[in-house]
Amino acid sequence: MTDALTAHHLTKRYGRRTALTDCTLEIPAGRVVGLVGPNGAGKSTLLQLACGLLDPTAGRIEVLGKRPVSGVKEVGFVAQDTPVYPGLTVAEHLRLGARLNPSWDRALADRRIDQVGLDPAQKAGKLSGGQRAQLALTVAAAKRPELLLLDEPVAALDPLARRTFLQGLMELTADQGISVIMSSHLVADLERVCDYLIVLVASEVRVAGDVDDLLASHHRLAGRRRDSTGLAVLEKSVAVIEESHTDVQSTLVVRSTAPIDDPSWQVDRLDLEDVVLAYLSGRPR
Ligand SMILES: Nc1ncnc2c1ncn2[C@@H]1O[C@H](COP(=O)(O)OP(=O)(O)OP(=O)(O)O)[C@@H](O)[C@H]1O
């Protein structure tokens, strides 16, 4: 099956400012991908490169096996500010979507508008931020794309609306098998819906992979204080992602596919948020 997205040494610079550096990724199709990273890490830049709104400065990107071209029907994009036409009603958005998109799924659009409680007669300019996000997702999903790119879609939503939105997203991916790449700062939400994770920090991909593999291969080690040379007791196959020390104790977050056998460490599993935080605060590649 063609990958949803591949990037090889992808770099994007705006003048002298680098937004994305040497990004190499292979994201299989059919996944719900969480894209996390601090403000300014390059998430929006990667999504805009993927939907063809930006061109790379160097390197290569392919989406569904092709060079991205803006506006193709196979790719749906919801930008960070969830753009809608303020003067059009909800119903007019759906009619416009139907007119512009031959693959428009009217039943899906009507069902979602009903489910999320939007009034078809309401002008989009009078919707709340969360309601606008729901409308923008509905329009993007009803085009029946193969890949949905969502830039912080839940940022403006209250917790209940967020849950409804994410449930809707899970239904879309389960029913239609579409791939989703979604940026967010809310790792707990991503843990609920994503099966693939990319952590982007300071324009670099720090880690990318299956959520299950990431959870199985990352561990927290705690043991008596030792300096960096003491860490050499760890196998070469163990990568230290983050370390902290008190006078008596050393605590590490490590990545290792093999079990940690050294009895001088207490080994604990991590949840996805711990893994993300370790990469956000850990050492660069
Ligand atoms: N049009 C632009 N012109 C110049 N610099 C830009 C432009 N767009 C983004 N940048 C810079 O590129 C870097 C990456 O920005 P980007 O918007 O991709 O980050 P982000 O991870 O999406 O951030 P956030 O979480 O705040 O939305 C930042 O340093 C930003 O200032």
Automatic annotation (TrEMBL):
Coiled-coil regions, chain positions: none
Annotated transmembrane regions: none
Pfam families to which the protein is assigned, alphabetical: ABC_tran
ABC transporter domain mapped to chain residues: 5-227
Keyword match ATP-binding: yes
GO molecular function: ATP binding; ATP hydrolysis activity
InterPro entries: AAA+_ATPase (IPR003593), ABC_transporter-like_ATP-bd (IPR003439), ABC_Transporter_VariousFunc (IPR051782), P-loop_NTPase (IPR027417)
UniProt keywords, alphabetically: ATP-binding, Nucleotide-binding, Transport
Gene3D superfamilies for this protein: P-loop containing nucleotide triphosphate hydrolases
SUPFAM superfamilies xrefs: P-loop containing nucleoside triphosphate hydrolases
Protein's UniProt name: ABC-2 type transport system ATP-binding protein
Lineage of the species this protein comes from: Bacteria, Bacillati, Actinomycetota, Actinomycetes, Micromonosporales
